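Q: Hi! First time doing this. I have a protein sequence and I read that you can turn it into a structure. Is that right? Here it is:
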Amino acid sequence: QVQLVESGGGLVQAGGSLRLSCAASGRTFSRYSMGWFRQAPGKEREFVATISWRDDSTYYADSLKGRFTISRDNAKNTVYLQMGSLKPEDTAVYYCAASIGVFANVNYEYDYWGQGTQVTVSS
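A: Yes, that's right. Below is the predicted 3D structure, encoded as structure tokens:
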């Protein structure tokens, strides 16, 4: 069992930056691939980024490449999402998730989910 708690969301102006954190419980964090998803009001949850447990390789949604960076610190059981050049359309609830797979970029591949953190980007 893995419990995930996101933090770092908030209100930011367009063009600004935020770093989200996701703290995981358990001693096997290093054996989970971690992902970030987001869900805007009235829209489906969408994939943002993932980082593999095996080699820390990363993968991003095409529309977010170059603005968002996912990273992890296994010693702290934490995964991060650095977001830059934020736009109003980035406004959403951001969720982190854990997968036992080596690579996972769709929501059904994830086994555990956090409760989410709200990110609001003002224009």
